[in-house]
Design a protein that fits this description.
This protein has 177 residues and is of the alpha+beta class. It has a domain of 122 residues: Jelly Rolls, CATH 2.60.120. It is globular. The mean pLDDT is 90.
Length: 177
């Protein structure tokens, strides 16, 4: 399952994301029967091809709510599937680089939000691609009423680092419609 998801994702860069989404939907149908359980997490896993992964304990202090992390690829361009329970979001943060760098997000299931400092929040749905330049303060996470998952790609660059900042306040988050 993970290898097939990785192959389809790599092909998407050459064949285009619309064709990749068609392949993801077919694979999702095949694998949805393998997911056991009837809780919300199992139901969400049936919606997407990528694994939800394990609890995101390594970065939990930078998230409000529960998130999960699954590494999809560790070669060429390493990337992860990050899954957020409803209402979960990460802190404001910045991907620093002196050249290149930044992050790319691709929505894969559910509904979520992305926001850059000083700008309105943008909805992320399956197929939404968000390009985040280096040195831009931002956050991302699930909508209040939906599980959400996105692929997270760290863009190669020079002198890259991540800086985790303050939490997104409930007041800020609750203003999003």
């Amino acid at each position: 399952r993970t290898e097939a998801a990785e192959i389809i994702t790599h092909i998407a860069f050459y064949a285009g994301w619309p064709k990749a989404w068609a392949a993801f939907n077919l694979a999702k149908e095949v694998w949805s029967e393998d997911v056991k359980g009837d809780d919300a997490k199992a139901a969400f896993q049936r919606e997407m091809i990528f694994p939800i992964g394990e609890p995101n304990t390594a970065y939990a202090k930078y998230f409000k709510g529960n998130s999960y992390l699954a590494q999809i690829s560790d070669s060429q361009i390493p990337f992860f599937n990050v899954t957020f329970e409803p209402g979960c979001r990460n802190n404001w943060h910045t991907h620093h680089a002196t050249r290149g760098g930044g992050q790319m997000l691709v929505g894969v299931a559910g509904r979520g939000w992305y926001q850059e400092e000083g700008k309105p929040a943008q909805e992320i749905l399956p197929g939404t691609v968000i390009h985040i330049p280096a040195n831009v303060k931002h956050w991302h996470g699930a909508a209040k009423d939906s599980w959400f998952a996105h692929l997270a790609f760290e863009i190669p660059g020079e002198n890259t680092s991540n800086e985790w900042l303050e939490a997104v306040s409930d007041e800020e988050y609750n203003k999003i419609k």
